[in-house]
Design a protein that fits this description.
With about 350 residues, the protein is α+β, with helices and mostly antiparallel strands. Helix content is about 45%, strand content about 20%.
Length: about 350
């Protein structure tokens, strides 16, 4: 059963927002208007679904009355309509349960994507570069904006590390399931005897921190400049436009060499630094709420092995939901939607189950 009292309170709030936003004499700044408009749009699907539920309940009551009437033919028709409405109502109530799951406030944020080779040497670095390309293709498919911030390449065409920013609508809600250890099983190009090797790459997906969320003391920063370089140390330009920022209290180091302008590289590096500090604080806070973390699909912990890419068998397996897709070629070309949809559904079901136990 759905909580009617809660839905009625939402309806009252929705009507209030309608009046406020529709009042030509109301005066509030852009930030307040944006906040109210978002609250209104968040409530809209709930209110629309609630109206459908009320209509179905009214239809059932009407059918019930006709079922008890003297007209036999009409009673049979009403009985059929009653059970049809009851079936639709059950589906709508189930849908409402998912709508009422509290939203992650970070879901709408842009993300910083970090890729780092782990176990496996050159093969791990090469696979790290392939994952970088995979996420770039996924970003293109989703019509999001992709910006590479810092890509440190190896001479063999792999990466030592890579950082990119992905911007658009509801990025974190989709990308958050990618954090963790990605394992690859395949025969490396350098393997002469055809043996399958296992390597790992670590992915971190961090919700972007906004200026209002975090302040950094300039005295806590050490900023170094250097020349941008590509694979093998070849200089991309002759000016010291690349930026490296060290946050002294935490030891966090970020770099950016994507832009030719030192100022632009500094701005991007500061975004990454704020995001890492914001994420560290968020992870620490999440530890205090272990029950909430248990209701999520995966903890977002970088040490958690989440997925295996088995090239000889052409499969990708996600260990959190025991799902295997036999389409590794399409997956590596950025077709991540089937996997992410399944993860999102499993996450919602886990949270729904946790709600029921409260």
């Amino acid at each position: 059963m759905i909580a009617k009292a809660k839905l009625e309170s939402y309806k009252i709030r929705y009507d209030e927002l309608n009046k406020i936003l529709g009042d030509p004499d109301a005066s509030f700044d852009n930030a307040e208007r944006k906040k109210l408009t978002k609250a209104h749009s968040d409530l809209l699907p709930v209110i629309e679904l609630y109206d459908e539920i009320l209509s179905l309940e009214a239809a059932m009551d009407e059918s019930k009355e006709l079922m008890n009437g003297s007209d036999k033919e009409m009673a049979e028709y009403a009985e059929s309509e009653y059970y049809s409405s009851r079936e639709k109502l059950a589906a709508k109530e189930e849908q409402m349960k998912f709508l009422l799951i509290p939203k992650d406030p970070l879901d709408e944020k842009n993300v910083i994507l970090e890729i780092r080779p782990a176990a496996g040497g050159d093969e791990s670095a090469l696979f790290g570069y392939e994952l970088l390309k995979m996420y770039r293709r996924f970003t293109e498919r989703m019509r999001w904006k992709w910006e590479e911030i810092d890509v440190d390449e190896t001479e063999l065409g792999g990466i030592k590390s890579a950082t990119a920013m992905i911007s658009g609508n509801d990025i974190y809600s989709r990308m958050k399931y990618e954090s963790g250890v990605h394992r690859v099983q395949r025969v490396p190009a350098t393997e002469s005897q055809g043996r399958v090797h296992t390597s790992t790459v670590t992915i971190a997906v961090l919700p972007e921190a906004e200026d209002v969320e975090l302040e950094i003391n300039e005295k806590d920063l050490r900023i170094d400049t250097y020349r941008s370089s590509g694979a093998g140390g070849q200089h991309v330009n002759k000016t010291e436009s690349a930026i490296r920022i060290t946050h002294i209290p935490t030891g966090i180091v970020v770099a950016c060499q994507d832009e030719r302008s030192q100022i632009k590289n500094r701005d991007k590096a500061m975004k990454v630094l704020k995001t890492r500090l914001f994420d560290a604080a968020r992870q620490e806070n999440d530890k205090k709420y272990s029950d909430y973390r248990k209701s999520q699909v995966g903890t977002g912990d970088r040490s958690e092995r989440i997925r295996t890419y088995n090239f000889p068998q052409g499969r990708v397996s996600d260990h959190r939901i025991n799902l295997t897709l036999y389409s590794i070629g399409e997956f590596m070309d950025g077709d991540l939607t089937p996997m992410i949809d399944a993860l999102a559904l499993a996450d919602m079901n886990a949270k729904l189950s946790a709600q029921g136990e409260e």
